[in-house]
C-alpha cells in the first residue's frame, strides 16, 4: 500500500491514562474520562492521540508490563470503552496510536507462565540461561530499573533476562514464533481501526548472539549488546513487509541513545523504510548525562546543538518527531524554563519547538504548564525506577541529596494527575486519586486557563493553529542564528516566498536582542508573542525574561 505519511501535517497529544481523567470516580484515570475530554483535545488543534498502554497489566510499570496484548484493562473501561473512544476520536478527525510494548511482557503473561514450565511452544519465548559455575549470573548486564538484568526462576531452574524491571522478562525475538505473535497483535489492533503504533524501546529487541559481557561502565551495562542489535533491521523489515505495508498506518520508534546517522537507517524515507518517526533522547539531555538521574546544570548551547543537529541532518531525508515532555521525563518548565516565570517560559518553550520541522507531540498537562513535584517523603513515589534509584543509587550518601535527585530525575513528576480545575483533587477524580495531586493545582489548572485569553493553554491553541496555516512550517528550510549565545535560541524557517523568525530568550532577566541583518523586524508581522510590549528599535528589542516573538514575512 502506498505510504501516505499523513502524520506530517499533524500534531499529536499523548495520554498517560492513569493520570489523565477519572470518569468513574475510582481514583484511576480511564477511558470514560478520555471520552469526556475528546472535545477538549480536539479544541487544542490535535489531529491524533498516542495512548500509553491501555492493556491488562499487573501495573508494576504502569502498564508497560502487559499481561494480555489483545484486550483493554477493565480498570480503564475494557474494550467497550476503548471502541467508543476510538470512534469518538475518528468522528472528530483524530487518529489513534497505540503503544506496542514487545521488548518484554509481564511475568504474569500466560506465555511466561508456560515458558517457565517448559510448556511448548512457549519454552523459548523468553531469554533463559543456566547459572554459570558457582551459581553466577549469565553475564554482567544491568537492568534499567532494578539492579542486575537477570532473575533466577525456581520453577524453571534458570535465569531469565529482564532489561527493565524484574517483573518484565525480555521476549526472545530471535524465535520466529514470537515474531508471529507480534504480527498477530499488530493486525488485531489495526483491524480494529487503530492508526498506528508507538513502539516501546523497539531498538532493544535484538540481542547480540552469545549475550557477551559488556565493559565496566557505570550505567546500563549491556546496552551496547542489545541497542540496535544485530538483527534489528531484519525484524523491523519483517513487521513492515508482513503487516504495516498492508495498512494505512504510521509507526514511531522509541530509541534511547540514537544518533541522527543511526536514526536514518530506520526512518530515511524510502518505499521500504522500517519506521516513520523516531523518538530520540538527545534533546532531553540538556540538563543531565545519559539519564535524568545524573543531573547537570541546564545548558542552552547543548539543547540548541541537538535541536539543530536533528533539524539539519534529517532535512530532505526523514521527518522529525518533536517533543518536550512525555511520561518518562520530569516536566519541562521545571527543567529548561522557570517555575517563577511559569507562563512566560512555558510559552517560549512551546514556540521553541512547535515551529521546527516535524510532527509535534504534546504530553498531557504540558499545555497548561504543569510543573515538577517536590515531595518531602520518598515513600510517596510510585515509580519502580524511582524507588530503586532512591534505595540503591550510590552516588549520594545523604538521604536529602538522594531525595533531591528524585525531584530532578523522577518520571513521577510528570505523572501526577492532570489539573483540570481548582475543585477538590484538581477535578481529576471525585474519588481518592491513585496518586498525589500537585498542590499547585489552584494556581495551575485548565479551567482557569480557559477563561484567560493570555494563558499558556490559549497560547498552545494559537501556536498550533498558526503552524497549520503557514506552509513554511511544514515545508521550509531551517537555519539557526546566534548559535553561541547562552541566552537566545533563534531560528528561521524559509521557503522561496515565506519566512518565519522565532526568537526565544532563555534568560530570567531582561537582555538585549538584535536581529540578524537580513531580517527587518519592522517589516515583518509579529504573529505570536508572550509580552504585550512589542516595540522594535534599531532592529532589536530588550527581551523580557523568557520572551518569545515569532515574526512572519510573505
Ligand atoms: C519505555 C517506556 C517506559 C517504560 C519502559 C519499559 O521507555 O516509555 O515508560 O518504563 O519503556 O517498558
The outline comes out as globular
- State the low-pLDDT regions, or none: none
- Structural class, by secondary structure, is alpha/beta
Approximate strand percentage: 15-25%
Largest sheet: 8 strands, parallel
Secondary-structure arrangement, i.e. CATH architecture of the largest domain: Alpha-Beta Barrel
Structural description of this entry:
This protein has 554 residues and is of the alpha/beta class. The chain contains 14 helices and 20 strands. The chain has an 8-stranded parallel β-sheet, with helices on one face. Helix 1 packs parallel to helix 2 (78-91) and helix 9 (342-354) runs parallel beside helix 13 (456-469). The radius of gyration is 23 Å and the shape is globular. The mean pLDDT is 97. Bound molecules: alpha-D-glucopyranose (GLC).
Question: What secondary-structure arrangement, pairings included, does this model have?
Answer:
Layout: E1 12-15, H1 31-43, E2 48-51, H2 78-91, E3 95-100, H3 110-116, E4 128-129, E5 150-153, E6 158-161, H4 176-192, E7 196-199, H5 232-242, E8 250-254, H6 260-267, E9 277-279, E10 288-289, E11 291-295, H7 300-314, E12 321-322, H8 332-335, H9 342-354, E13 359-363, H10 384-392, H11 399-409, H12 446-451, H13 456-469, H14 471-475, E14 477-481, E15 488-494, E16 499-505, E17 511-514, E18 525-529, E19 540-543, E20 548-553
Parallel strand pairs: 1-2, 1-13, 2-3, 3-7, 7-8, 8-9, 12-13
Antiparallel strand pairs: 4-6, 5-6, 10-11, 14-15, 15-16, 16-20, 17-19, 18-20
Bound molecules: alpha-D-glucopyranose.
Alpha-D-glucopyranose (GLC) binds at residues 61, 64, 101, 164, 200-201, 254, 327-328.
Amino acid at each position: 500500500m502506498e505510504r501516505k505519511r499523513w502524520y506530517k501535517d499533524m500534531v499529536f497529544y499523548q495520554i498517560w491514562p492513569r493520570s489523565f481523567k477519572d470518569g468513574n470516580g475510582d481514583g484511576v484515570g480511564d477511558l470514560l474520562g478520555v471520552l469526556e475530554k475528546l472535545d477538549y483535545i480536539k479544541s487544542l488543534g490535535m489531529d491524533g492521540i498516542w495512548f500509553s498502554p491501555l492493556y491488562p497489566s499487573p501495573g508494576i510499570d504502569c502498564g508497560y508490563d502487559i499481561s494480555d496484548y489483545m484486550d483493554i484493562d477493565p480498570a480503564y473501561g475494557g474494550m467497550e470503552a476503548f471502541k467508543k473512544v476510538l470512534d469518538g476520536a475518528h468522528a472528530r478527525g483524530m487518529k489513534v496510536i497505540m503503544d506496542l510494548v514487545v521488548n518484554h511482557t509481564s511475568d504474569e503473561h500466560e506465555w511466561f507462565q508456560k515458558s517457565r514450565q517448559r510448556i511448548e511452544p512457549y519454552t523459548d519465548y523468553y531469554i533463559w540461561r543456566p547459572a554459570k559455575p558457582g551459581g553466577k549470573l549469565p553475564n554482567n548486564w544491568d537492568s534499567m530499573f532494578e539492579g542486575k538484568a537477570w532473575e533466577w526462576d525456581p520453577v524453571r531452574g534458570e535465569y531469565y533476562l529482564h532489561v527493565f524491571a524484574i517483573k518484565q522478562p525480555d521476549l526472545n525475538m530471535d524465535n520466529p514464533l514470537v515474531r508471529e505473535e507480534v504480527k498477530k497483535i499488530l493486525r488485531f489492533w489495526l483491524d480494529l481501526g487503530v492508526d498506528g503504533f508507538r513502539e516501546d524501546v523497539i531498538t532493544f529487541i535484538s540481542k547480540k548472539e552469545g549475550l557477551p559481557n559488556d565493559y565496566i561502565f557505570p550505567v546500563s551495562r549491556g546496552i551496547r549488546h542489545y541497542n540496535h542489535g544485530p538483527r534489528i533491521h531484519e525484524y523491523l523489515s519483517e513487521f513492515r513487509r508482513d503487516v504495516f505495508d498492508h495498512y494505512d498506518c504510521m509507526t514511531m520508534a522509541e530509541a534511547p541513545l540514537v544518533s541522527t546517522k543511526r536514526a536514518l537507517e530506520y526512518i530515511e524515507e524510502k518505499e521500504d523504510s522500517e519506521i516513520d518517526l523516531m523518538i530520540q533522547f538527545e534533546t532531553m539531555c540538556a540538563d543531565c548525562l545519559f539519564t535524568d538521574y545524573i543531573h547537570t546544570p541546564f545548558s542552552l548551547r547543548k539543547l540548541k546543538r541537538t535541536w539543530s543537529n536533528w533539524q539539519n541532518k534529517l532535512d530532505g531525508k526523514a521527518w522529525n518527531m518533536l517533543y518536550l515532555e512525555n511520561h518518562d521525563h520530569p516536566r519541562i518548565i521545571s527543567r529548561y524554563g522557570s517555575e517563577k516565570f511559569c507562563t512566560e517560559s512555558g510559552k517560549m518553550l512551546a514556540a521553541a519547538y512547535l515551529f521546527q520541522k516535524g510532527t509535534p507531540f504534546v504530553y498531557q498537562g504540558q499545555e497548561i504548564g504543569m510543573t515538577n513535584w517536590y515531595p518531602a517523603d520518598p515513600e510517596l513515589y510510585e515509580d519502580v525506577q524511582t524507588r530503586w534509584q532512591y534505595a540503591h543509587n550510590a552516588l549520594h550518601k545523604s538521604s536529602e541529596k538522594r531525595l533531591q535527585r528524585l525531584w530532578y530525575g523522577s518520571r513521577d513528576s510528570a505523572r501526577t494527575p492532570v489539573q483540570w480545575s481548582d475543585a477538590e483533587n484538581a477535578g481529576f477524580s471525585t474519588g481518592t486519586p491513585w496518586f498525589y495531586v500537585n498542590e499547585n493545582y489552584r494556581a495551575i489548572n485548565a479551567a482557569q486557563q480557559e477563561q484567560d485569553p493570555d494563558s499558556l493553554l490559549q497560547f498552545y491553541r494559537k501556536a498550533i493553529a498558526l503552524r497549520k496555516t503557514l506552509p513554511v512550517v511544514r515545508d521550509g528550510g531551517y537555519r539557526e542564528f546566534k548559535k553561541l549565545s547562552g541566552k537566545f535560541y533563534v531560528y528561521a524557517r524559509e521557503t522561496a516566498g515565506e519566512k518565519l523568525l522565532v526568537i526565544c530568550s532563555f534568560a530570567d532577566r531582561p537582555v538585549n536582542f538584535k536581529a540578524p541583518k537580513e531580517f527587518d523586524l519592522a517589516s515583518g508581522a509579529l504573529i505570536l508573542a508572550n509580552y504585550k510590549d512589542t516595540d522594535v528599535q534599531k532592529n532589536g528589542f530588550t527581551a523580557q525574561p523568557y520572551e518569545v516573538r515569532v515574526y512572519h514575512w510573505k
